[in-house]
Amino acid sequence: MTSIHDNEPDSTVYETRVSYLMLLEEKQRALSKKALLHRLVFISKLSSELSDKRKLGEYYEELFEKLENEHKAEGVSGILLIYPGYVVHLIETSSDILYDILRDLDQLASKNSPLMTEPKILTISHDVPTRLYQQWSFRILNISSGRDEYEGKEGVNELVVETVTLLLKLGVYILKTPKLNVKDNLHESVPELLIPQDQIGYLLQRPELDSPAMFLKTFDNPVDTVLDSELVWPVAENIAVDMK
User: Fold this and answer.
1) In terms of pLDDT, which residue wins out, 177 or 11?
2) CA-wise closest residue to 80 among 62, 52, 56
3) Which residue of 19, 44, 132, 142 could cross-link 171, Cys pair, CB 3.0 to 4.6 Å?
């Protein structure tokens, strides 16, 4: 009796096909990374009810510890800059933790949190090659409040690029300055690498930037795209079903 496997080709004759996913996984193993690394940058207003700004930093320390224990994935690195009236936060971590952070940020915004309000996402970068910030920390910037109106002429896209670039340059500076203490005043040592407050306030007012709720709505909803060809009759020959 002939086996169903008798007519199958010998698997040893063929080379193993390598997929793009396999290449990415191999890349992560070479870098000793448990998962792909992603980078989130968001800005927000500081709540007027927040009397001690250290509470915001402590809140995120507890949140990150909780999420890292839940997911057992890549830890969190980055920097939280706390201005007199604004928040700038860069986070590097795995996708699972990143989206949990966004959901938590959405809850803070919807519940009128005493920590911060009206957050906006500047950028989310996927598959970041390596961490720029080796650990997570927060800095309270003891500077005077900025101007209320932004006087620049750049568009939103240019300002977002400029803002993210400054954060990346700040990360390079901290990386190259191993003796820099968490308590050191960045506004005194590298004021040129800090985002102007009026620029942050301007970006928070722009409707082009997504809130966490808007981003998560797009992320969670299924993709249901109607192609133009689906609205045309008769059906094109190359996709028509042969009924013979």
Assistant:
1) 177
2) 56
3) 132
With 0-12 CB in 10 A as exposed, 13-18 as middle and 19+ as buried, what is 195?
Answer: buried
Token look-up 């620029």 returns 199
Cα 150 to Cα 159: distance, rounded to the nearest angstrom: 11
Q: Note whether residue 54 is domain-resident.
A: yes
Q: The domain containing residue 64 runs over which residues?
A: 35-239
Residues in the chain: 244
C-alpha to C-alpha distance for 238 and 184, rounded to whole angstroms: 66
Which tens digits make up the pLDDT trace of 140-185?
988 776 565 666 667 889 999 999 999 999 999 888 886 666 556 7
How far apart CA 231 and CA 152 sit, in angstroms, is: 46
In a domain, 22, yes or no: no
Task: Please give the structure tokens belonging to residue 50.
Answer: 């927040």
> Which residue, among 139, 2, 149, 36, has the nearest Cα to 80 in the 3D structure?
139
Q: What is the pTM of this model?
A: 0.74
Residues 6+ apart with CB under 8 A from 234: 240
**Is pLDDT above 90 for 233?**
no
**CATH code for the domain of 115:** 3.30.70.100
Q: Please answer whether residues 193 and 169 qualify as being in contact, where contact means their C-beta atoms are separated by less than 8 angstroms.
A: yes
4 inside domain: no
2: amino acid identity, one letter: T
| 244 found inside a domain | no
**Kind plus residue range of the DSSP H or E element containing 156:** helix 156-176
Examine the pLDDT at 241 and tell me if it is beyond 60: no
- The verdict on whether omega for the bond into residue 234 sits within 30 degrees of 0, i.e. cis, is yes
Domains in the chain: how many in total? 1
